Amino acid sequence: MDPRISSIGNKALRGEPVSAAEAEFLIQLQGDERHELLFWANRVRSAFKGDRITFCSIISAKQGACPEDCRFCSQSARHRTDIETFPLLVEEELTERIHERARSGSDSVGIVTSGRGPTSQEEWARILKAVGETSRACGGHACASLGVLTEERARELREAGLVRYNHNLETSRSYFPKICTTHSYDDRLETIRLLKRARIEVCCGGIFGMGESVRDRVELAMELRELDVDSIPLNFLNPIPGTPLEGVQPLDPMEILGIIATFRLMFPDKDIKVCGGREVNLRDLQSWMFYAGANGAILGNYLTTTGRKAEDDLQMIKDLGLRAGRHGDDHWATEATEATEGTEDTENEGEGRKGTNG
Ligand code: SF4
User: Does the pLDDT at position 101 exceed 90?
Assistant: First the structure.
């Protein structure tokens, strides 16, 4: 076995930064050496995150008809996908979905809208109300993914009870122009910096399997480290018919696990969540994502695709000897799990991108 693997693993255990060159070495490991990498990723996850796995749920509050051209996305009006499109849900419907997700066993619930950013004042007022309702329903763990923000809107979101905002970089700066041409990488960075100034936690990651190189994956990780984001969602492309990436060959499950493990060693103390594409790409190896270092996932359905039943994921955690919920949130987690028992998982009513927003 290459001694560099355990040497980098020990470095991560001590909380020392793994370099870009070391990450490039790790992410390309194969066979037994990749298994060794997973072993170290599991040790690091356990040392920094204990036995806790946190789950997020998302609500597709406004879907499709997006003027942007992100090549992976089923919600761009420029692509011929057959998703259902709808404007921002009315208040009653939003409230119902927030409470349904909050009962599912999730630690947080996120309101997600398609588009470059919220449009009218009326729409914005409804979103703020929904954020407040989410915060009350989820013990203060309200999230959102609403696209580009202004300083004022970020402040209003925080005052409404928002704690975390998702805004993915999607890929490396070098590869981004091949994925989106209607806005720039710097536009995305600006929203992230603005969130940090507003003291809102940042959930920011990317999508893998869009034709990017190994170097692009590490470049994205280095950018995220520079930004010092709080949570890193890792999405794996589920090519949607009608999008420009529909014919892309999906990643191999072991390659995905190697990416997750490399990110864990690069970000020992951060939340690493496996989001879009896990069911379709990892298949029977889904439970391995925790061994590869993930400490979170999306529970239930995605935006335009259906996820597993919440109770199946909660059972998987239990079978692995892990526990759902944050440290100190036992009461909340137990309540949520009990509420799920015997509850039919609702059919996927809102579908969309895979936990990523413009
Ligand atoms: S990712 Fe966001 S901005 Fe890009 S096309 Fe999809 S909804 Fe629009």
Answer: no
